[in-house]
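This part of the workshop introduces the protein records we will be handling. An example says more than a description, so a record of this kind follows:
>
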Amino acid sequence: MKWGFFFLLFFLLVTMQWSLWRIFSTLHIRPALSLIPFYNLFLLHRNLGKPDRQAWQFLFPLWNLYYLHKLEVLLARRFGKSPGWARLYLSTLFFIGYPYLACRSCQRDKPGELP
């Protein structure tokens, strides 16, 4: 039982990291930078068109969860998904939503545009 939980957690971590790697390559960010823990959020923040001065909002407890949710909605919109899809699959069922964005052959919008 203990080893099963460990392997499940390891599988989720590897899957999430692989998904971020693929999403970063789709957004034309060097994929190796997705391995750096907080810098990857900053790069995603910058690529989604938010000003750099707003990145400090990740430092505050509870507020960072709200701000991360806002970034997930922007990420979903960048890949052509609705905010409701982002709330369900990127915020709640993240272990399904991020691999879906990574695997799917969807066309993203141009870097400066959000639908």
